[in-house]
Specification:
By secondary structure, the chain is of the alpha/beta class. 34% of the residues lie in helices and 15% in strands. The chain folds into 2 domains: 173 residues, NAD(P)-binding Rossmann-like Domain (Rossmann fold, 3-Layer(aba) Sandwich); 40 residues, no CATH class. The structure holds 1,4-dihydronicotinamide adenine dinucleotide. It catalyses: formate + NAD(+) = CO2 + NADH.
């Protein structure tokens, strides 16, 4: 949703409607097709893989960077190419989507230097964690136009204070932290919590993917 909102320049069109305006050229000069664009995901775990599957019908050139290569079946199903070197992948991307956890390694991953090496006009979607970005570097990139659009629902800190600069930078399509909180998702959380509590009181282990810390050790994807 956020990729489409940015690539089609949706938000200014929505504001024109509210403001009683009608200026098609004012939207179109910054609107593009998603087809044919290079989209790279940083992180291809559960969400990154679902994203690649959903992007497949848009006929993009799909790239992914992760600590781990996906299984060959998923690679051939999505057509996504593995990029071992993050800094080799990023400058190829028209659109970058961040899907890694916040860890000691990903904190501040998108700093001024890294952003300066991205394609001019790059679109960035970050629903992962706000602190993966250097806040001011994103503001500067959006203000200069080096970043063509930034969208996400995660901020640092949260709740975002009224004077958080991402509220006021140009070309942003931000929301509060809403991605995981549909009514359907809340039913899944409730069922998941019930299942884990039942297992806990029976003295059973949880499914391995549900551990964040086990016996004092962070799960590998958070290290
Ligand atoms: N905005 C929201 O409402 C939500 C945000 N999230 C965020 O999205 C993140 C991803 O979620 P999932 O896909 O479920 O997690 P996941 O654990 O399935 O996938 C994370 C992937 O990131 C990779 N990774 C970790 N550190 C890396 C590094 N330094 N370099 C490259 N790759 C690295 C891991 O190998 C793994 O494949 C979560 O950690 C969470 O922060 C998740 C759900 C809702």
């Amino acid at each position: 949703m956020r990729i489409l909102i940015l690539v089609r320049n949706f938000i200014p069109g929505y504001h024109q409607v509210i403001n009683g305006e009608w200026n098609v050229a004012g939207i179109a000069h910054r609107a593009y097709d998603l087809e044919g664009k290079t989209v790279g995901t940083v992180g291809a775990g559960r969400i990154g893989k679902l994203l690649l599957q959903r992007l497949k019908p848009f006929n993009c050139n799909l790239l992914y960077h992760d600590r781990l290569k996906m299984d060959p079946e998923m690679e051939s199903q999505t057509g996504a190419k593995f990029e071992e070197d993050l800094d080799a992948m990023l400058p190829k991307c028209d659109i970058i989507v961040i899907n890694t956890p916040l860890t000691e390694k990903t904190k501040g991953m998108f700093d001024k230097d890294r952003i300066s090496k991205l394609k001019k006009g790059v679109l960035i979607v970050n629903n992962a964690r706000g602190a993966i970005m250097d806040t001011q570097a994103v503001v500067d990139g959006c203000s200069s136009g080096h970043i063509g659009g930034y969208s996400g629902d995660v901020w640092y800190p949260q709740p975002a204070p009224r004077d958080h600069p991402w509220r006021y930078m140009p070309n942003q399509a931000m929301t509060p932290h809403i991605s995981g909180t549909t009514i359907d998702a809340q039913l899944r959380y409730a069922a998941g919590v019930k299942d884990m509590l039942e297992r806990y009181f029976k003295g059973e282990d949880f499914p391995p993917q549900h551990y964040i810390v086990k016996e004092g050790q962070l799960a590998s994807q958070y290290q």
